[in-house]
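Here's what a typical entry looks like (GST N-terminal domain-containing protein):
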Amino acid sequence: MQTDIVLLDIPSPKPLPTSPNTWKVRLALNYKKLNYRTQWVPTSAIEAVCRPLGIAPTGIKPNGSPHYTLPAIIDRTDPSHPIFLSDSMPIVEYLEKTYPPAPGTELFPGNTLSLQAVFVQFVMGRLMAFIPELAIMAIYHSKSPDEQLDFKQRIETRFGKPIDAIEKQGAEREASFKALEQVFTMLKFAFSKNEDGDFLMGSQVSFADFALFGFLTMIKSASPEEIYPRIISWDGGRWGRYLEGFEGWIAVDK
C-alpha cells in the first residue's frame, strides 16, 4: 500500500537488526506490505531525536525523568495529520486500525488483543529475564563500539556491578539454561494445541509471534555459537523451523 511511514530503529553491525522490540513493528510493516523507510537512531540519541518530534516516552527513569525507547514511527501518509507513535504494541494496533487487514490476515484475530498482550507482557517478559543471566555479554559484543559504551553504562547502572560480572557461571549457568528450556517446553505445549500450522494460532501469524521472533533473532545474532544452538536443539528443532516461517517478512532497507 502507498504509505509514507518512517520506522525509527536501532543500528547494528550485524546483517539484521537485533532489537526484539523494533522487530515487532518491522515485521508488521512488511507483513502488511506498507511502504516505509528506516531512520537508524543510536540508543544514545533516542531521546534527542524523539523529544523534539513529540514522540512520547515509554516509561520513567529511576531519577524521575522520561525514558525514551524505540521502536517509534512517523506516519505522514496524510500530510495534514502526521502521526507520531512509540511502543511496539500501540504502533501495531494503530497500523491494524488505520490500514485494515484482509480477512484471515489480522495480527489480532478473533478478539485476541488482550490475550496477546498477556503473552507479550508475561511470557516474553519471562524469556527476557534470562538475558542478564545468560546473554548480556554476547549482546554487548554484538554491538558497535559506540553502542557498546552506552549499553555498558545503562546495564551497570541498572545492576550495580561491572557488566562482565552479571552473567551466571558454572552450575548456576546450567541451571538457568534448564529453566529456559522449561519455558520453551511450555511454549511448545501451547503451540501444539493448533495443528494447522507452526505459529501460536496455527497457520495465521500474530503479533505474539512477532514478539517471539524478535527474541529468537536477537539470540541468534548475539550468541550463534552457544545459546542459539541450544534453543534450536530443544523440542526436536521446532524453534529453528519456526524462524524459517518468517523469511518473507524480514526485509530491511539499508
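The CA atoms of residues 2 and 35 lie 6 Å apart.

More examples are in the samples folder.
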